[in-house]
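Figure caption, in words: inputs first, then the predicted bound structure.
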Amino acid sequence: MSASTIRKHHGVFHWKGVDVLVYKQEGTAPFKDVTRQVLFDGTDMPCELRYFEVAPGGFTTLERHEHVHNVMVIRGSGRCVIGDEVHALAVNDLVRVPPMTWHQFRAGDAEPLGFLCMVPAHRDRPQLPDVQEHVALGKLLEP
Ligand code: MN
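Bound structure (manganese (II) ion present):
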């Protein structure tokens, strides 16, 4: 990250000097239509703040890990799976994902879901569900 103190909001949920990245850069974890922007990269604080945007119909990887996510929705609406619960999400909602808890964020069909996500700068790699777990968790999302 540059030394700049201020990076101006520029466009719609974009910031000057902040790259829009693919959500995952490695592996084969399933996800659909998600971008990632690193707003604060943990250089001088042991956490990172990222902005994720899930396009309509898209979803993040269903995963779990030891590190916690602290999330604030700032655009659109959608749903999240946290453990064995599904929650509707709207702007300004806060979500804490506890350690080793399955989680996934999904946009609805009409608008994107954009959220800030704070994580520790040093964190463990996500685990993916096996087939049985995936089926059980998938049932939660059926209408
Ligand atoms: Mn995660």
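The mean pLDDT is 91.
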